[in-house]
């Protein structure tokens, strides 16, 4: 059997597996409810193991911050573990751990989320603790002063002392002229240094409310019982006046009208290149097609060892020691299509940039083969199957879609639309979006490593 025929057969088998899983009684379709106070509840029963994942998603991230208080969404995430009137600081995680579970949280540009994963019999404990801190969090100057130092050290460890993270941060600040995505999620250091507990309290009061949240429960549960628990623990929390996500002021990035370039000097062993092109995100799941084609383009260029960039630039031409492409189709704001890599020894970033440009030209000239499309479709379907295999991944998939303003019920449609992308559509989006007028090029200029700051990790870093 020919390689492309094998891949097509693999896609058909995986697609059949997705449909079988979706229709299986083990994976019931999600149940959706809206409490009177505006809390959205989504329950997905999965009885394959006695485990439950509970996630609360707040529709507020760094995109909602203002200049001068960047990083406040993430700082408050840390403070959410500092206690309420009935649950002292640090006790939240200790109680979850004592029940054999794990808990944590994460902040992104678009949302902030908190989760617990534990035995299904302990779901009431997770709900009791999480609903308590939705409205009863105690914020003190003393605890905030301690925790903001932890956040600043986290910034140093994960950004300031990481050359690739630093160049990405600075590139985003140049690529976006006005959109809030130009600001780092963790915040600018000067804002963190001047942040106060009052800033945290204002953020908490503004956004942490049931009518700005989605509760996602996935696991070995009964939907009706979960609804009763949710009404018991969350139903009495009053909604708050806030601006719904759909009504928040539009934040449209002005069109870029020429290439932007920047060089970042930082202690590092190797140089590094990022090329970022402005690109759209998915707004209408049915009508849009460009974001789907861009996702397939990402897979054509990257995805695995046989993808174009790795095959041509790493294995054959040996211009790069590592190479990659990246694109996110779903977000509240605009996206970017990234090409990045590290030049091989004896090669320069200029040579790597030229090689990447040549690969784009080859794609525009010769198009995409059916074999490449079949390979990427197989990756897309396989990724979907793998997510269905994990209760945590299922909850993440549902929560993320809902938190950015799409519906979890669109997931199957998205999968179908991705598989329907044509070779011509891939070439069309490459021609339209991979142009210099929308390009920002960032180069890491490595400096001697002895300049690197010596640090000691703090005793506690969440995530």
Strand order of the largest sheet: 1-2-6-3-5-4
**Helical fraction:** 40-55%
Helix tally equals 16
Number of strands: 11
- Please give the radius of gyration in angstroms: 23 Å
Mean pLDDT, to the nearest integer, reads 91
Strand content: 15-25%
Structural class: alpha+beta
Task: Explain this structure.
The protein is α+β, with helices and mostly antiparallel strands and 463 residues long. 43% of the residues lie in helices and 17% in strands. The chain has 16 helices and 11 strands. The strands form 2 sheets. The chain has a 6-stranded mixed beta sheet with strand order 1-2-6-3-5-4, with helices on both faces. A hairpin with a 7-residue loop joins strand 9 (320-327) and strand 10 (335-343). The longest helix has 21 residues, at 3-23. It is globular and about 60 Å long. The chain starts with a helix and ends in a 16-residue tail after the last strand.
